[in-house]
Each structure stands twice: as structure tokens, then as C-alpha cells.
Backbone:
């Protein structure tokens, strides 16, 4: 069966520090991968999606970047965090060949920037 | 173009009473529709999905939803609320089969269950 892992679960970082959140998927090949952010009291915002290694699409201009160095690994990064980067970050995957568009989410990473 | 509107940001019910969470959508294509649930500080879990088969869809934990094309609605219901149902619920719309990024999330409905 497929599983998705996301870490770290929580982190507190000072403004201006770097960020790296990691997501890996097991039990599938060539998944579509996604990073969402959920700010306090707001809905889900799609940040990045990837349909293959090295293929990243950005949905909104921001202080963050994403990379996909391996088929089932998706990394969210920042060189210098801003206060506004605080939020709950969710990684998700979907079968590339699936027409039903069902997303499976990781458990999330809560980032607090101070 | 597509959009989804969750008509209530908060719903409060008593344990044992019915639950109704409302969702209206618009889509230029035949849509797929989903409901996800999120417990505090957790990821989103799929409750149920509609993908152009039966219009009444049964999901996990006793939830179900009915796709009504004429009303462009996909309301989530449960006959009897349980304390563990307290969570945030998201309605999601997507055109069938287009994949990639084409999912639109509603703003969420927070369900409170009173003892």
C-alpha cells in the first residue's frame, strides 16, 4: 500500500533563517506531488506541484521554492524565512494516471516563524 | 473555470443529532467532487468522492453526500453526530481526468459537536 511521510512535524524558526521540509511517498511510481499551505483561519493554498523529477510548477510568487530530486521525494525550501511564512504545510500525492484526482495528504508540518 | 462555496464557516450540533454541511460548486466540465476531513494539526483525510457514478455517495464514518446537478450542490450529511466528528471539513471540486493542479478547495466548515 502507499504511504506518505512528511517531516519535521513541527518547527520554530527565526526570521531570516533557512527552511527545508521533506516529503516522501512509498508504494507508487511517478506520482504527482503537491505542496499546500494552510494559514491560520484560511483555506488551503496550492504552492507547488510536480509531475516528474525536476519538474516544478509554482502557483504563487513567494519566498519559497520546491525541488524534486528523486521520483518520490519532494522538498520545500526557503533561503530566508519571513513572518508570513508561518503556517501548516501539507504535502500530497496523486496517481498520475488517475482520472479521479484523489489526493492523499501527509500529516503536515507546522511552521512558526518568530 | 471552477469554484466551490461552502455555505457555512461554522456548524454546531448536539451529539446524536443530524449533520448537514453545505457545498455548492461551479464547473465548466463534468466535475469530480470530494469531501475531506481535517482534525486539529492533522493532514486531510478523504471522506468520500463522486466521480460520475451513483449520485448518492457513501463514505467513511457514516457520512454520505448527494450530487445534485440541477442544484450544483454536494452537501455532506450524517444521521447522527458523534463527538469524534468534530473537525474541519473541506469540499473540493475538480474536472474529471485533467489531473495536475486542477483541484479547487472550499474555505472549510468547522463542525462542533456539543455533548
Residues:
Amino acid at each position: 500500500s502507499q504511504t506518505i511521510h512528511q517531516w519535521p512535524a513541527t518547527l520554530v524558526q527565526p526570521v531570516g533563517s533557512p527552511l527545508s521540509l521533506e516529503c516522501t511517498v512509498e508504494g507508487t511510481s511517478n506520482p504527482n506531488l503537491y505542496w499546500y499551505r494552510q494559514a491560520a483561519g484560511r483555506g488551503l493554498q496550492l504552492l507547488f506541484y510536480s509531475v516528474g523529477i525536476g519538474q516544478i510548477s509554482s502557483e504563487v510568487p513567494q519566498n519559497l521554492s520546491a525541488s524534486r530530486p528523486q521520483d518520490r521525494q519532494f522538498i520545500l525550501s526557503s533561503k530566508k524565512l519571513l513572518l508570513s511564512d508561518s503556517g501548516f504545510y501539507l504535502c500530497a500525492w496523486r496517481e498520475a494516471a488517475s482520472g479521479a484526482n484523489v489526493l492523499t495528504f501527509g500529516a503536515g508540518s507546522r511552521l512558526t516563524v518568530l | 473555470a471552477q469554484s466551490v462555496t461552502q455555505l457555512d464557516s461554522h456548524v454546531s450540533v448536539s451529539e446524536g443529532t443530524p449533520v448537514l454541511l453545505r457545498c455548492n460548486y461551479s464547473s465548466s466540465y463534468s466535475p469530480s467532487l470530494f469531501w475531506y476531513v481535517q482534525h486539529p494539526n492533522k493532514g486531510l483525510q478523504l471522506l468520500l468522492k463522486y466521480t460520475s457514478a451513483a449520485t448518492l455517495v457513501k463514505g467513511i464514518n457514516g457520512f454520505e453526500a448527494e450530487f445534485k446537478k440541477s442544484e450544483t450542490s454536494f452537501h455532506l450529511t450524517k444521521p447522527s453526530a458523534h463527538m469524534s466528528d468534530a473537525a474541519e471539513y473541506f469540499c473540493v471540486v475538480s474536472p474529471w481526468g485533467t489531473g495536475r493542479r486542477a483541484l479547487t478547495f472550499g474555505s472549510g466548515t468547522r463542525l462542533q459537536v456539543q455533548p
